[in-house]
Protein 1
Amino acid sequence: MDASRTPELTDDELDAYIHGRLKMAGVDLSVLPEDDSSAPADRKGILAGARRFLRSTPAAILAFEPDVQRVPPTLYPAARSVAVRKEGNHAG
Amino acid sequence: MRGSGRRPGGNRRVAKGRGTAPARPPEPSDGTPTVPAPQDLQLDRRFFLQRMGLLTAAVATGSAFVPPDLAAGLPPPVRRPPRLPDPRSVQAVQPWQMTLAELAGLVKARQLSPTELVDVYLDRIDRYEGLLMAFNTVTADAARAAAQTATDAPWEGPLHGMPLALKDNYYTQGVLTTANSYIYEKFVPDFDATCWAHLRDGGAILLGKTQMGPLATTRATTPDGHNTTVNPWAPHDPSVSPGGSSSGSACAVAMGLAACSTGTQTGGSITDPSSRQGLTGLKPTMGRCSLHGIVPLTYTRDHPGTLARDARDAAIMLQAMAGPDPSDPRTLGLPPVPDFTTAAEPVRTGSAVKLRWPTTIGVLPGYLEAGRGSGGRGEYGRSSRGLGQRERARRRQEAQVRAGSEVAARKAMLSTFESLGARVVEIPFPDDWETLTASAFNNVRLPERTEPFMDALRKDVRLFGVSLSPWINGLLLPAPEYLRGQRAKLLLLSRVLDGIFSQCDVVVQTEPYPFDMIGLPLIAFPIGSEDSRGFDLPVAGMFGALPFGEERLLAAVAAYQTVTDWHRRRPPEPDLSAGNHNLPAPPPARGRVDIHHVMEHGE
């Protein structure tokens, strides 16, 4: 599990990704105040949080390299994974 | 504590063995009817992953997906009416101090009417709501009408005439349901959430809808982040978090404003406020309770559950709330609902209280070292940013005192469980634990909250108030990373099953992660108190269990609560006299959370 293969991204690169993605999704941050810590949300804080998220999360996830044959994606691991045992015969 | 890394007791190992019969529970000597082996013993851990692999492979290859009928191999559940406490045992206690089970005993015996009980709670809401801010909506008139109907009707069961508080993300037909969000500020559902419908059908009465973190994030605040609900153990100090996001649901029960309440948990939102307010909070296995009619936060991690006075009350609530719902595919094809209320009744051998089933408790590294949380997260609204050195030092001192009290309480709790017959074993963290439980994999949930709210995001991001940041971040995580996160969940589950539950039946937890991520059940319960800030605050323990291990959790905590009284302790009655100037002003004077808190502390 090695995150070193993901290069460090600059703020400008991340901002370009963020703004492009938001535009593609039709989400407009311009209605927020630019920099106002007394507001519920401002553009400066939202973008800073988004950059932190992008620096920390995708690379760490991609550094995890499971055996795709043995570890399928699973939305509900607990609820959908239980096999049932009945007097020595496994229903699973 | 005995041993290290040993396997659990003989009965359990025999029960798990291929081709052998499940362990038989001990026969109580007082004639208490037994229930079959708990469901976690009837579900074979060793086949979880094999089964899951087949299922997910079918999905991945586009094969027809048929939900597994997991109920097929289990014996039909045997349920009997709960044994309620003898009304004579609670004559000296005020109704608002009683547990739901005790109240049910009085109502059944017609020594207390639902009408009288509703009036008791409405009087207390009138008195304390201005200070506590536990509710968004109080349905006083409808509650009185329902109570009159219940008073005139024959007794139907333990929920008959019981006034409940519902978290304000549960749909309630004809009653405002806001989720403390601008998005839902005028939303009046035209149907009831399935869980509430089950409780109502059992005879429960809606007393009101409770304050919560906006869209079930953070502690209870207004949509723009101003703190509302206070912790009733320290109502004079809004910086003492009530826990989130089911803050008002916890406050209503802790202060005797309702008999019991519901909550939802995606990242600790039941266990955290329960821990901070001295309650017993149960987050069931994913799929045990329907999410139909609950405002979504994270599709694969939202869990309905209950915040209760004790394990018996939690069992009564879960008994009604649980079960398959055609409107929620997550609930279909799962093991049948067992007899939770019987599981949570005390068992005695002679005069000694015993655990209902042989139980091994796993203790993970660091649990008995100072500095691990009491089942919660950081102090909402207590940011250390901008503080001077003296204040930082004072807070460090407080934290050290609190940590010492927590460790002492944990040791005493484990010792009590040993006296009840439990085995306590140390177990190491499973392989890859640090990686698979890291925040990056926790963040995989974020696209799931973004997707159902795309219309609102495109309309006006200001509708999300203080909670906007995680919804934006969820938009930014690419699909391959999202899917890889789902693979990590499966691997994490296999590590938990093989690395933890091969050695124990329940495991201590200090955080809702990672059990919330993989849908395993959790229970939080009070085990002590601490006074690091000059007033008493509850200290909590938390156990996790195998899928569908709620009976095990309820039975264990019920036995513990039969021989301890931490769950009986209630916050002091606030001094509301005009001369008391030590009370908080209404919001916005109670402080606020900001977007950084919401992102850091989640839900």
Protein 2
Amino acid sequence: MNFEPDDNQAAILDGLEQLITAQKIEPPKHPTFVAFSETLDAELAASGFLDIAREEGFSPLDAALIVERIARLPRCAEVAASALIGPLFPIDALQRPVAVLRGSPLGAARFLPQARSLIVVEDENVSLISVTPDRVVPVESLFAYPYGRLASVEGLAVQRFSRDMVAAVLRRWRLSMAVEAAGLMQAALDTVLEHVKTRKQFGRALGSFQAVQHRLATAASTTNATKWLALRAAWSDEEADCAMAATYAQDAIPLFTYDLHQFCGAMGLTLEFPLHLWTYRLKALLGELGGSGGQARAAADLTWADAA
Amino acid sequence: MEFGWNEDEVRYRDRIRKVLDESLPSDWNEIATHGPGSKPQTEFSKSFCKILAKEGMLIPHWPSAFGGEDGKPWDHFILGEEIWAAGEPRGPQYMNVNWIGPVMMRYATPEQQNRYLPDIVAGNVIWCQGFSEPSAGSDLASLQTRAEKVDGGYVVNGAKVWTSYAGLADHCFLLARTGAGKSGIVILLVPMTSKGIQVKEIDALIGEGDIHELFFDDVFVPEENRLGAEGQAWEIISYALQNERIGIPRYAFARRILNRAIAKLKADGRFDDPVIKDRAGRVLAKCEAARMMVYRVVDERAKGAPPSAFGNLARFSVVQADHAVSDFMLEYMPEGMLGDDPMQQAHHQRAIAAGIASGAAEIQLNLAARRFLDLPSE
């Protein structure tokens, strides 16, 4: 048991930090619902960080550490699907950015406006559809990810993968949600902590009120529990662990996001205050794969398959 | 990062399970339905802890100079997980080995160590913790029991309440006041046979024989029974509570009880109910989240880092997990509380104390807010 990054992981995180610093990632200067960074996305891909789980001697845990760190940035890039789900496919079969859907290929998907590949998980198989931005209709929403949907799949190249891939993709999808949620929670919490330490009402900092302190301490407990459960799932890469981690994260998102916005008052309802750039990614994750109930039932089935 | 067990740890866990399997009697589940402070568990602990001592599983984490085996922190925690999951057959003696002994090793005089530690090492002594008072629960520093300095010692007057294990205890680890403020608190190691001590059991939701009132009426305590210097008590208490706060791996028992519940729900054909399955999955995630939070704290300790406020966050997650399991069973298996499953009731009785014993959950949040989040005070 070791909760500290090993030398390889420390080197990866150090290199990632250098890339982030060089990118000078700042919150958007103009109010916006979505802050997608094309340059960050391209740099991450070019640097090889997103292929790390394919490399000899590296693992999904190394990829998860990258996903968690990038999720903390105020601008998003397509990282989780590329780094964690992508390596399940042959390297020459999949181009990034990657979008993922369950069921119909015509649903709205995160990062589809940028995507070159759309993974569609059906009950019996997995389809990998080659897409181009001109086939995607952007979808505007409050969610802080770029969303889009295909007008049709006609004429698009589709590769089908066997039933085994269904469980594998669901496993990594759940893992990627949990890991990304951990990073989003940490950044959102940090933003609100800074706010409540400086914002004064009734002559004192908001963060000095016990009613606020208890809920923020609870949020910190939630954030850390999400992170360590997700990283354990990345380490084991087992279906039950991944479902458990996603369950915990999705189950926590409603109260977590409510409390954090609450402590920012009306300021937290505006786009100039950047909190939504993380909380509205969390809220988007809340509804994926059938929501927390879907993950909870999967976790229960997978964990107690042999219980009698 | 590495979240698995090495071969030695796996072997150690297997050995503990084997010893538990071989040494717990067939009626252990019945005994365990009584609280850890009950007469049946306390009496059982005196025979069981001797077996653990013989197997080297009572104080393996203690330094060899005090009879231990210089065991690794992770091994100590694995031992705690397995024993708590089995229903804590050490009864009140878990406290001896987890914090009373370690506190004495650090702060007691050699004479005190010779006097008190051998009985703990032999698994043959019961201590109670004379901390809480009618007006000093979570606000422990406001305690009022007085220790008046007299020739050769102290005369103690006052009352303690909600004191676990007092009914059958041999000694009391007592906090009393010699002056104002935290520096005016003293720790006295008081024989429970001392003249002037009266113990009264309090009927409680958490099981018979578990909590008591303690009255001190001109109780003389020799100076040689004071632990540490006058003015040092708060430092010692803080050290003790750091050990106590995550010392009990409650999630392990909660997870065992949850597994039992799922097996029963499956046998009854109720596990396919999507609502029950949904709730079970959420509760499971809370248990495992608590486990990882506590492991993170143990990892800090294993690396020799000073105690951090992460322990307060971890403790809060443990309380959430314990309550979630209990609430799940209250809602979907109420028959367990109506005589069908005494073990379920035993878990419930432990779970409802999880957020109160050894520092209320809200105190953990206060400490986390100040020390972990660096939030301002009023």
